[in-house]
Here is the input.
Amino acid sequence: MNKYLKKHLANFLTLVLFVSVTVVSHSQDGEKLFKANCASCHHPVKNATGPKMQGVLQKWEDNGEGDLIYEWVKNPAELYNSGKSKMAKAIWDWSPTVMTPQGHLSEDEVKSIFAYVDAYAPPVTAQGPATDDTVYEAEDETVSFWWWIIIGLMVFVLFATFGVRRELSEVIAAKEGQAVDPKKTFIVSARQWALRNWFVTVLMFVAVALFSGIELFGRLYQVGVYQDYQPSQPIAYSHKLHAGNMGIECRYCHHSAEKSKHAGIPSVNVCMNCHAVVHEGPQYGTEEIDKIHLAAGYNKAKQAYNLDANGFRVEQPLVWNKAHNLPDHVYFSHAQHVHQNTGNIDCRQCHGPVQNYTLGRVSTTEEVNAYATTDEGMEKGIIQLTKPILTMGWCIECHNKKEIDLASTGYYEEIHNRLKSRADVHNNILEDDKVTVKELGGWECAKCHY
Here is the structure.
C-alpha cells in the first residue's frame, strides 16, 4: 500500500511540476508577445490609449462572449460591424480609437498574452539614492582635477627645492671664502647642471617628447569622437521608463527607421497617443507631461485640443537637441541597416542598451560589448567591436565582422548567386562558410561617402 501511495504521489508531484513549468513558460511567452504587440497602447493594470487588460478575458467570458474576444483581437472593426458582440460595442463606446488588428497572432498566443496580464503585479520600486550617469562623469572630472593639482604641487616643490639648494650652496661658498657670482641666475645654474649631467638631460628630453607625442596623438584620435555624449532636452523623457519598464518597441516612436535614411524624432502626436489619457508620470508627476500637452495644444481639463479662429490647433513646437551627428560627407541609411529584408540589425548594436538610458545619448563601445555578452544581447545578435562608436573604424570593423543571412529573403538569394561568379570572394566564403558585409562590398568607399 505504501509503495502504491508513493508511486501515485510521485506521479502527482511530477504532474504539478509539469503544469507549473508550463504556466511559467506560457506567462513568459505572453510577456514577450504583450510587449511586442500590445504595450504601445495598453497597460496590464492602467487605462492608457486602450483600456487596461487585466481581467478583460474574464469579463468577456462573464458576458458569454469568451470565444468572440479572439475575433476582436484579430479584427476589431469586423467584429464591431457584425453587431454580434455587446462587448465590442462597449469598448468602441469607451474609446472610438481604432485598435490595430492583430491577425498574425494565433489563439494560443492571445491566450498566453491574457495569462501574462492576469498574472501581472506592478513592480515594487526600491527606495534608495538616485543614480545617474552625470554622477560618474562628475567623479571622473573631480579625479582628473585632483591629479592636475598634485602634479602642480610636485612641480612647485621641485623648483622650491632647487631654489633652496642654490641659496644654501651660495652661503656655504661665502663661508669658505669662495667668490659668489651675484649675476648667476637659476637659469644659468640649471644650464650648467644640464651640461654636467648631459646623459640624464637627454633621457629627460626623450621622455618628455615621447609623452607629449603620445598625448598629442591620443587627443587627435578623439577629434570627432562623441561617445557618451548626452545633450539636454526640452522634456525630461526617459527611455528607461518607456523602452525599459513599459517595453515599448523602439520603432513605435522612431517609426521611420525601417523606411528612410533617418530614424526620425517622434512627433508630439505620437506622444499624445498615450498622453491624451496618461497625465502623470512616476518621477516628475504632471510637470513634464504638461509640456507635451502645451506643445500639442491639448487642454487636459476639457480633454480637447485648443483651436484658433480658423479651427487650427494652437501648438508650441518642441525643439529637440540632436545627439547623434555624422559629418556631412558621410552617407548612412537606417532603412538599409534596420529593415528586416536588408540588414535587420537590432537598434542596440549601434545605440547600446537604450532601455537603461534616460535622455537620448551616444553609447560607448564598452556598453555595447557588455550588453553583447548578456543572454538578451546574444539573442539579438549583437557583436563586440573595439573602435569608438560613430567613427569610420567602427563602421569598417562592423562590416568586416557582421555576418549576412543569405537564406532570409530573396534579395540575399540573388546576392548569393552573384557571388558564385566571383571566384576571389567565393573562395573566401568557402573557407569560413560565412558571408560578411565586407564581402558584399561593404568596404567600398562610395558605399558610405558621397
